[in-house]
Amino acid sequence: MLTYKAPLRDMKFLMNDVFDFQTHYKTLNTGENADAETVDMILQGMADFAEGVISPLYQPADEEGCKFDNGEVTTPTGFKDAYQQYVEGGWQGVSYPEEYGGMNLPMSLNLVKSEMIGTANWPWSMYPGLSTGCINTILHYGDKEQKDLYLPKLVEGSWSGTMCLTEAQAGTDLGQVKTKAEPNDDGTFRINGTKIFISSGEHDLTDNIVHIVLARLPHAPEGTKGISLFIVPKFIPDADGEAGERNGVTCGSIEHKMGISSSATCVLNFDDATGYLIGKPHKGLRAMFTFMNTARMGTAIQAVAHSELAFQNALPYAKERRSMRALSGTKEPNEVADTIINHADVRRLLLTMKAFAEGGRSMIYHAARYADKMAEGIAEGDEEKFEKWDDKIGFYTPVLKGFLTEIANEVAKHGIQIYGGHGYIKEWGMELIARDARISTLYEGTTGVQALDLLGRKVILGSKGKVVRDYTASVMKWCGEYALDKDMRKFVWALTKLCAEWNTLTVRIMLMARKDREIISAACDDYLMYAGYTMMAYHWARMAAVAYKKLEEGGEESPEFYKAKIQTAEFYFDKILPRASGHAESMMTPSEVMTGMDAESFSFLD
Ligand SMILES: Cc1cc2nc3c(=O)[nH]c(=O)nc-3n(C[C@H](O)[C@H](O)[C@H](O)COP(=O)(O)OP(=O)(O)OC[C@H]3O[C@@H](n4cnc5c(N)ncnc54)[C@H](O)[C@@H]3O)c2cc1C
User: Fold this and answer.
1) For 282, phi and psi rounded to 5 degrees?
2) Residue 70's pLDDT is what?
3) How far is it between the farthest Cα atoms of the chain?
């Protein structure tokens, strides 16, 4: 049976010692209320809810799944009650403005909260999670009437939200969206079309569901330039702002999936549904990006969540399961065999899991500080501020989403491996983590799309390499501070070399791309993974630096925690970081190696 314990010690290490959130909060308007005591209270409250309320539901709910009957979806036993407790605790509103009923705390606290509930029970967390993007979109692009009507209920959590982009023919390529929006005389729109794969599209947790829908106005330009965004509530709000008349949006079916079976993935039919334009006509995709950046960050958190849960549950097993003797000599002579944690190869698996879970958390908490500034821009209606920080996050988003979800699948695989054959058996839950983690590289833009976004849009077209020059300059500046530190020398030396190499690789790819555009597609996956391993190296070096300092200072905290951080950093640099070299070499392969083969020559089946 899987169990979850919130890693508060590690979270606080990052928030207090590595990134000094308290000083950062002083630079925010929303930071006023986020004093150390309040932050601790939020962390503890969320940990209690995650560990005690939703974690025990995770495995049984997977077995039970969601039920579909005549357009209605019933979530698994316990989900509704847990959701009610979540609403009563005010948890949905942690980072939203007080005028809509929120606590007005920084967005980073919402992300930390998402990590805890996501690790305890990812599919459950998707119901409130999808609402976050909906709230952000209405906050950013809605008019006053829309904000006043929808935000209080969404922030309270009594209504939930969805994002309705995908159609059967239009997934990655949203330019192919066909759903139609025709104007009514009263300023509303008639929405007709079918959306597929809509998470939380129908369920029994809330009084109303607010769909954010991509659709085309009559005579709209072809492709992505002709898409507009609409609010389509399941129940049209009445004069008192309560869920009123039933709208023409119904759930046609739910998907039977490999994982996240307790998250309802719905086909939604829009039949003359009443919709309300949000933002400007034909600018829907731009507006949807607010939604998507939040959602992609959410998926990166999913990666850390699965990594953490797999690691937490593999470790005790490795300390109990006995098999053979350690090669260096018997460790437990009074037992029939040594525990498997005594074998270096099992330690390789465990340390990889630990390095990825904690390294990924550090990468997210770092970006969360930019999310704080971006969210403040949205809440204050300050477009310039929003754009500035959205741009900054834009460089990190594809790496966090693409790289962390790929390595989370590796962690989940290692979790099964540590359990041996038992890992393949449902009872232990390790196969559940692997099944649930698998979706993370697919939705919110596949890894391929993240990689193209990073190399094509952010690095080459968007900045001609400047984003990499800026990022590596900041890493090298940090390395400079430790140049004479003998403990840190091995880390900063490796990082400095990587920074120089990353810039060289970027220039070489840009030059190659002038003659051969396909190289961007051919090299982007290697580029993404290279960027991910390099960024994570920087994070492990930073954590090691803080750990050395803490050990030197002494104090009340146990030194073992810091020693383990340094040892994990060493493991990461010695055993994992060499993978970056392979990606560096591979990304320089001419695209011809991939594009050269005729499509008909891939197989010669009769
Ligand atoms: C469980 C689940 C939940 C989901 N939740 C939602 C939701 O709430 N709302 C919503 O709107 N959608 C949702 N989706 C849809 C999801 O976002 C899409 O499935 C995803 O974006 C991929 O689209 P697709 O399935 O059409 O694949 P395709 O776009 O057909 O892609 C197929 C393959 O081709 C590759 N590819 C495509 N174009 C390119 C290119 N230009 N260059 C290189 N490679 C390319 C892709 O990387 C992928 O490997 C969900 C899907 C699932 C399975």
Assistant:
1) 70, 5
2) 97
3) 85
Task: Report phi then psi at 210, rounded to 5.
Answer: -105, 110
* Ligand 1 and 163: CB distance under 6 A: yes
The position carrying tokens 């049209």 is 236
- What pLDDT was estimated at residue 214? 97
Looking at residue 290, its pLDDT comes to 64
Quick one: pLDDT at residue 605?
A: 93
For ligand 1, whether the C-beta of 521 sits within 6 Å is: yes
224 CA from centroid of ligand 1 (Å): 16
- C-alpha 455 – ligand 1 centre gap (Å): 19
pLDDT at 380: 85
Handedness of CA 73, 77, 81, 84 (dihedral sign): negative
What pLDDT shows up at residue 269?
A: 98
Q: Which atom of ligand 1 is nearest to the CA of 260?
A: 1
Question: What residue ranges of the chain have pLDDT lower than 50?
Answer: none
3-state helix, strand, coil in the chain (%, to 5): 65, 10, 25
Q: Which residues make Cβ contacts (< 8 Å) with residue 455, sequence separation at least 6?
A: 509, 520, 523, 524, 527, 528
Nearest CA among 239, 308, 408, 409 for reference residue 11: 308
How much is the pLDDT for 311? Answer: 98
Taking the C-alpha atoms of residue 33 and residue 98, their distance in angstroms, rounded to an integer, is 11
Which residue's alpha carbon is nearest to atom 17 within ligand 1? 443
Query: Is 444 known to be catalytic?
Result: yes
| Active-site annotation holder among 358, 376, 406, 444 | 444
Burial class (CB in 10 A: 0-12, 13-18, 19+), 564: middle
Separation of alpha carbons 494 and 489, rounded Å: 9
Residues whose CB is less than 8 angstroms from the CB of residue 418 and which lie 6 or more positions away in sequence, other chains included: 314, 317, 318, 340, 346, 349, 350, 430
Q: Is 197 in the pocket of ligand 1 (CB under 6 A)?
A: yes
User: Which atom of ligand 1 lies nearest, measured to the CA of 163?
Assistant: 9
169 Cβ closer than 6 Å to some ligand 1 atom: no
Q: Which of the listed residues 127, 229, 443, 520 should we mutate to test ligand 1's pocket, taking the one with most ligand atoms within 8 A of CB? A: 443
Ligand 1 centroid to residue 126 C-alpha, Å? 18
Measured from the Cα of 448, ligand 1's closest atom is 47
Residue 592 burial (CB count, 10 A): 12
pLDDT on residue 347:
98
Q: How far is the CA of 444 from the centre of ligand 1 (A)?
A: 7
Of 524, 402, 389, give the one whose Cα is nearest residue 459. 524
State the first-to-last Cα distance of the chain, in angstroms, to the nearest integer: 48
Of ligand 1's listed atoms, the one at least distance from the Cα of 165 is: 11
pTM of the model: 0.98
For residue 522, the CA-to-ligand 1 centroid distance in Å is 19
Please tell me the predicted confidence (pLDDT) of residue 555.
77
Side chain identity at residue 199, one-letter code:
S
